[in-house]
From TrEMBL:
Superkingdom of source: Bacteria
Gene3D superfamilies (alphabetical): alpha/beta hydrolase
Keywords: Hydrolase
RNA-binding is among the record's keywords: no
Protein name: Alpha/beta hydrolase
SUPFAM superfamilies: alpha/beta-Hydrolases
Residue ranges occupied by any Alpha/beta hydrolase fold-3 domain in the UniProt entry: 77-278
Species name: Methylopila musalis
Molecular function as annotated in GO: hydrolase activity
Family to which this protein belongs: Belongs to the 'GDXG' lipolytic enzyme family.
Pfam family, one: Abhydrolase_3
Length: 314
């Protein structure tokens, strides 16, 4: 993606680099990280307009449903939140979930999947499978369902696709990955090449969360690192990542692997954007534009049934 970087983005990068990243580097405690991530969501909540939110349970998993005003059923987004498998919740991702629901004219379902280290692999993936299967039982047509996930949630989205394919279950119409963490071996060049450029993520801290989620397992298992799976036969995919983040090459290599497998895939690399900048849409113009691009992809890919929401005003 080309164009000047906004003043808001430059300020966000400074705040992340000097106020947030040092705390993550100096306090590599996953339980503390979880509390701090949730505290940010409580202190700075994001509730998009013209969206109704309610708590529910789907497939035995607690979820939040975000429904665009005017939505009458049909389109469904299953959003798998990020948080390095150890943090995050539907609360932390209300802004992006609501904006996608509003833009696509859909219901966005965000599972409160189980977190590591209390619940290591495959607990989170099992919860994602249970929610997806239950949505289909609710009469959500696969051609009107899309998966969306950021960071660790992007990992879960593509692991879910591989699991569904292996089990012979209906695949959704599309998948979106935002800075997806799809290689737990950390073999991408950007892991070291962008270590000093990334204003948010610390490469040295990734082994901690990987160990919390996948201790003692083969990290090349495609359900842990979807990059190494058979990506043929998957639905159209849309990927976004920041050009300066350590996970840039996870998205770049995933895009190349999808294309090599014959799966339609689009990649956007946004210069100077931090990890999952789309979550800052309340004040970041690049986040609102990125969400608009996602909405355009989903609108073109999902079946039209039930699209009665608002126009894509992220």
């Amino acid at each position: 993606m080309e164009g000047p970087v906004s003043a808001q983005a430059r300020m966000l990068n400074l705040v992340l680099r000097y106020a947030v990243k040092p705390r993550l580097e100096h306090n590599p405690d996953v339980i503390r990280l979880r509390r701090e991530v949730d505290a940010v969501a409580r202190v700075a909540p994001d509730f998009p307009r013209n969206v109704v939110r309610r708590a529910d349970a789907v497939g035995g998993v607690a979820v939040e449903r975000h429904t665009a005003i005017g939505h009458r059923g049909g389109r469904t987004l299953l959003y798998l939140h990020g948080g390095a498998f150890v943090a995050g919740s539907p609360r932390t991702h209300r802004g992006i979930a609501g904006r996608l629901a509003r833009g696509v004219g859909a219901e966005t379902v965000v599972p409160d999947y189980r977190l590591a280290p209390e619940h290591p692999f495959p607990a989170a993936l099992a919860d994602a499978v249970a929610v997806y299967a239950a949505l289909l039982e609710e009469a959500a047509a696969p051609d009107a369902v899309a998966l969306v996930g950021d960071s660790a949630g992007g990992n879960l989205a593509f692991a879910l696709l591989l699991r569904l394919k292996a089990d012979g279950l209906p695949l959704p119409a599309a998948a979106v990955g935002l800075s997806p963490f799809v290689d737990m071996t950390g073999s991408g060049d950007s892991m070291s090449g962008n270590a000093g450029l990334d204003p948010f993520l610390d490469a040295a801290g990734l082994p901690l969360v990987v160990d919390a989620y996948a201790s003692g397992r083969d990290l090349r298992d495609p359900l842990l690192s979807p990059l190494f799976g058979d990506l043929s036969g998957l639905p159209p995919c849309f990927l976004q990542c920041g050009g300066s983040e350590i996970l840039r090459d996870d998205a770049v290599r995933l895009h190349a692997a999808l294309c090599a497998a014959g799966t339609p895939a689009t990649l956007e690399v946004w210069p100077e954007m931090p990890h999952v900048w789309q979550a800052f849409a309340r004040f970041l113009p690049e986040a609102r534009t990125a969400i608009a691009h996602m909405v355009a992809f989903l609108d073109a890919t999902l079946a039209a049934g039930g699209k009665h929401g608002l126009a894509a005003v992220a």
